[in-house]
Amino acid sequence: MAGRSRNTPDQQPSEAEGLLPADYDLADLYGAQSADEDPDDTAVLIPPIALPEDAELAAAALAVPLISRVVALARWVAPHREVDEHGDLGEADRVQAARMLGAEEPDEEDVVEAMRAWALACDLDLVETGTTEEGAHVAIPGPDLDAVEAGEPAAVLGLWFEAAELVRELAAEAESVDPEVVEGGGRDDSDGLAEVEDARDQAAEILDEALHTLYEATAFAEPGAETVPLGVLAALLVVPDGQEPDEEMLGEITDLMVVLDPMLGDLAELGLVEHRPIDPDLFEEGGDGGDGEGAEVLDTDRPLTEEDAARFGTVRLTPLGQYAVREWLLADGYDAPLIGDLADQDGPALLRALAEDGQLFAEAELKAWLAARAPLDAARDLLAGARGRDVQSPVRRYYCVLGLGEIGEEAAAPVREVVDDPELGGLAREWLRARGADVPAAEREVALWRIVDSMAAVMLLTAGEGGRLQALVADLPVTDNPASYFGEVWRVPHPMTVEVLEAVGELHLDRKVAKEARRAAVKARSLRAQGA
């Protein structure tokens, strides 16, 4: 299938005149934020996503206009239709195909679009060509047509994904074509072809990085907020983490937007993305001495509206796009989990997995897990998984509390069963009292253990960074005699007592409290060594 032709200016992106993102302040144009973000936001390399059921994805694939045209053409050739030796339709059949696809009076453009769909149908083997015993060249429907028309998910998604791979490859190939090389251009053929090949590889790499970035951005986005300005996408690819873009980077962002824009347009044809292209009116006519008359120019001295920003292009990865990118990530050896992958695990296995990998998406994973279980059974299973005194146990208890919160009042009975448990008693009493239950406060030793356990969980989840740990340290119920308070804490038999005390000693704003915490940490470390 031939790639879509590019109606791009004669200039290279860096030479194009007119109003482009580099003319604006990055924060104004892209809503850029400082690097002081919650460190949790970057903790997972490939975040888990939620995908619709295969049947819903298959229905979406069949609703893509290009796919519907491909399927219609495959049915149209039944039982067979004559083609030439190259598998191409004759002129009359081309017009008839365009008419069958909805063009009442087909013009040249209608015929071209019909033949693009025909080429894709042949590439996907939904239309097969061959030779009869009499030597005639014919096209017939492929063997998967019936299953595809019936909407069988495996057949439809297999067909659509194969088309997605072709379109992704051809989008990069079309972006990299140099007309001078294609037409000869007076240069050495081998050098020119090598240059095109390098450009194609570079375009493919850029597109893959953009799709990977979109995949992550979509996973982190709030529902309804998955659309990404094209400038934001380009900035994420250009600007290193934690840096503010300089003037050179702004130019690179603009160039990259111009490169990505047509490739994303090709992917939009197959439903991988929803794409609003860069408004061509933002390019002033230049390079030929023109005065740019007729081109619309934005006023950069006034605030940029949402509509103005959208004219620089937007893109949204669809569920079909998420499905395709995940398949490509898996093929490249990445672990690309789905929310709900842990739904068949028991409580201990679920909490272990969340403690190791799923911090950012625990709530969604817990909801998927809970949906498959009776509330009482789920609560007991979570509490069983929360036990232990290994280093990861504080995080398991943290997620256990989240899960119990999702269950709500129906978890009260199982929680009451563990109020006297040495590891879960403090958690249980705290949970019940927060819901108005008449439960005595935990004994002093259990209460102190719970304080250490809660701080340890936050330390492990945040790697000790961010404001959550600072807030817990500030809220410690230290008495007027911190030496007495920490004299109790350092004896708490918790696997992270030393680390918690060291964190208090480093972060507490009261110098006297911080000093006593550091002294207690030394004693706790000595006690740990004696027990080793």
TrEMBL record:
Residues 1-14 have a biased composition (Polar residues). Residues 1-22 are annotated as: Disordered. This is Uncharacterized protein.
